[in-house]
Amino acid sequence: MRNFFQNLLLGASVAMLIIASYWLGQQAYSWMPIQATAEAKQVDHLFSFLVTVGAFIFFGVVSIILYSLIFHRAARDDYSEGHPARGNWQIEALWIVIPTLLVLWIAFQSYQIYQQLNFQGLNLPILVDVPLEDTAKSKETKPLAEEIAVVVKQWAWSFHYPNNIVSDTLHLPVNRTIRLVFYSEDVLHGFYVPEFRIKQDIIPNRRIIFTFTPLRVGKYRLRDSQFSGKNFALMEADVYVEPSTAYSQWLAHNNSQFHDYDKLQSTKLAAIFHH
Amino acid sequence: MLIRAELVTPELNLVNRSFYNSLFTMHGTIMIFLWIIPSLSGLANYLVPLMIGARDMAFPRLNAMAFWIVPPAGLLLLSSFFLPGGSAQSGWWSYPPLSIQNPSGNILNGQLFWILAIILLGISSIMTAINFVTTIVWMRAPGMTFFRMPIFVWTVLSAQILQLFFLPSLTGGLILLLFDLCFGTPFFRPSKGGDPILYQHMFWFYSHPTVYVWALPAFGIFSEIIPAFSRNPLFGYRSVAVASLGIALFSALVWVHHMFTSGTPNWMRMLFMLTTMLVAVPTGVKVLAWTATLWRSKLHLETPMLFALAGVVMFLFAGITGVMLGAVPFDLHVNNTHFIVGHFHYIVYNTITVAIFGAIYFWFPKITGRMYAEGWGKIHFWLTLIAANLTFFPLFPLGLQGMVRRISSYNPEYAKWNFIASLGGFLLGISILPFIANIVSSWLRGIPATNNPWRATGLEWITTSPPPRENFAEIPAVNFPPYSYGQPQAWAGENSPQE
Q1: Looking at the partner chain, which of A43, A58, A96 has a beta carbon nearest the beta carbon of B333?
Q2: Could you report the per-residue pLDDT of A230-239, keeping only the tens digit for each?
Q3: Region A146-168: what's the mean pLDDT?
Q4: Is B273 close to A111, i.e. CB distance below 8 A?
Q5: Is B491 part of any domain?
Q6: Beta-carbon pairs below 8 A across chains A and B
Q7: Residue B334: which pLDDT band, with cuts at 50, 70 and 90?
Q8: Would you call B295 and A201 a contact, using CB atoms and an 8 Å cutoff?
Q9: What's the Cα-to-Cα distance from B64 to each of B70, B139, B324, rounded to whole Å?
Q10: Is B220 on the interface with A (CB under 8 A)?
Q11: What CATH number did the domain enclosing B272 receive?
């Protein structure tokens, strides 16, 4: 009878633990910034999953410790043996096998979500000399992509659009795949908009292409995420995700404004696009 | 505290930006190379010969030399604050090209002093590693087989093997960095065709395993304290011993997880995601073994045990957030944010430093021959527990919200959590005071300790407190397994365990 009640209590505690972990996993969405890209949704699903599994393990182990701590204190001056168990190969095997499977499961989930993020840019040969044809070809396969060069230096951002448009704020059309081509003039920097979730270091002499799809119109802050020296804390820029009409208007407006952009800049731009 | 003081408010108002950069660079460097590594080496230096029944370390002169390199290297590092251009400002990673820019233009600059100091400290650590491995392999007392060694000795062995294998990579990388900085060589200089990412590989190839060099002895400390205060042998002793080597092995294969955003190709990201997560298996074995040792036991809650229990729980939290960080898509969001800072402070403070406090209280009677004041120990414990969580927990939500690390000013939406963390930081500074007062006054005027006040097993408890110059009057012979709680002769104190 006593055993039955003990098992019931144990079952109830495990059930509560599962419910609590699931609840916490759902709360995890609200700990993140607004989801502004397709990628953000995927990352948040993964985070919620990690929080659920993590909470289950953490609160499970902590409850066992707390239980012993509350109910199994030694009497004063009782230095006799605590309990007869020295080890048990079945339990030990179990806690090697279960965590291994758990970890493989987490890794598999992460792998699947990573596949959906589509970082095709990183699969290109990384060094500078990507032949011109390659770029052209990848443009063909992704006709909807908007390609923008991001140029960063100590301590300023600039964004180079086709037709020699240069801006110190980043404007992006909503619901279209964006391809950013990164270029650093001096040290390492990092491209990071928390609402977009994804992050990429910018490395001098390396052509790195970064693709993502903004889904939510709004104003965001771009932050340098790789320490870049004295004014690192000030390395921010405004990012505007706009409906495509507003975006086209902005492009047209700036096109006239920057029509006579100096020659030096345009050669640099050409180097970035067709390196 | 100065760093947290600057971050009390969003704006920059206490220090200038360059000095803030110096502060966090030096904070990381000093805490790692001049606090954790030396204090753990010191502790292990004291305990390992005692625990294996040896009179001293294998090479006392090498030991002394390794020790005496530390103060000059430390002074060299600190003196760089007084250079015209200030100390190093490129973070404790010193990633090029930033670290080879030398903004002051002087030949003698903070970065140069930083590199020289770290190379010296690295040489000292290699000497120490040779000494520990030799001592543990060759100087064990008769009957002290490998599977009779306390887990602390196992963890020190695993950690020091890591030092031997991986430290040369950092030293080599730093020498190349020195050449780039002083002589304009192009190893890591992209403008001359060098590769800055190569430095990151050389740096993390050592600097990830080094985290386990610190964490493993902390696990060893937990494995000594928990059995003594729950009156049980360590559950699954052999698997915990082997897990130490397992952690060492796995930790050698995970360094790229620091570089998921560094232009690392997809296949490499996925491979290192898997290896990173697999480290959770041997560490999980340890956490579960401690938990099983505690399970329905007879717990004594003196100060060392409180620190050990809190350390285990906070390590579990750190470990779980660590597996999260291993998941590449999530890491891409929180990489280089305060989430990482929170994660590793739960390791380096809430696990390792807490373990060191536990160890100091646990072995204080042995080292000094006097008891510490229990009441003050408990006050120190509760203050530490509250302050450490108050300081480091807020960094997790800040990181999730996207606050990046190493910034001296931030956007106002992050103000609330930063204020709490700064409050915690000051409390954490205060929390050390009862510890210092307790240690100093107890050392001078504490109640004399018996040889074995905790009735613990282990050879260090059979010798006098403090031990004689050569540790044991007579080298003990060992004919029983470790952690023989429940067998009265094993903790008899003065009695020789030979019967």
Answers
A1: A43
A2: 888 888 889 9
A3: 86
A4: yes
A5: no
A6: 261
A7: confident
A8: no
A9: 10, 18, 42
A10: no
A11: 1.20.210.10
Query: Is A68's pLDDT higher than 60?
Result: yes
Helices (H), B184-334: 196-207, 209-230, 237-251, 266-278, 280-294, 303-326, 328-334
3-state secondary structure of A117: helix
Complex ipTM value: 0.86
To test the contact with chain A by mutation, choose from B260, B294, B317 the residue with the greatest count of A C-beta atoms within 10 A, namely: B294
* Chain A, nearest residue to B102 by Cα: A229
Q: Which residues of A touch B409 (CB under 8 A)?
A: 233-234
Is-contact B3 B27, C-beta < 8 A? yes
Q: Report whether pLDDT(B4) > 50.
A: yes
Q: Considering all CA atoms of chain A, what is the largest pairwise distance in Å, rounded to the nearest integer?
A: 90
Chain centroid, CA A159 distance in Å = 22
Classify A218 in phi/psi space as left (phi over 0), alpha (psi -120 to 50) or beta.
left
% of chain B exceeding 70 in pLDDT:
94
For residue A43, give the nearest of A109, A99, A103 by alpha carbon.
A109
Residues 80-139 of B with CB under 8 A from A: 89-91, 95-98, 101, 103
* Chain A residues within an 8 Å CB radius of B241: none
Contact A226 B486 (CB under 8 A): no
List Cα–Cα distances, B444 to A53, B321, B364, in angstroms. Answer: 50, 42, 12
Summarised one tens digit per residue, pLDDT across range B346-404 is 998 999 999 999 999 999 999 999 999 999 999 999 999 999 999 999 999 999 888 88
Please report whether residue B482 resides in a domain. no
Structural domain range at position B350: 2-461
Residues 6+ apart with CB under 8 A from B64: none
Q: Between chains, do A43 and B332 touch, taking CB under 8 Å as contact?
A: yes
Higher pLDDT, B45 or B480: B45
Burial label for A177, CB within 10 Å (0-12, 13-18, 19+), is middle
CA distance A6 to chain B (A): 14
Q: Do B288 and A61 touch (CB under 8 A)?
A: yes
Phi, psi of A83 (to 5 degrees): -150, 160
Whether the CB of B287 is below 8 Å from some CB of chain A: the reply is yes
The answer to the question of residue B490 being in a domain is no
Structural domain count of chain B: 1
Considering the domain boundaries, does residue B481 fall inside one? Answer: no
What is the share, in percent, of chain A residues with pLDDT greater than 90?
20
Res B411 pLDDT > 70? yes
pLDDT band at A161 (very low <50, low <70, confident <90, very high): confident
What's the predicted TM-score (pTM) here?
0.88
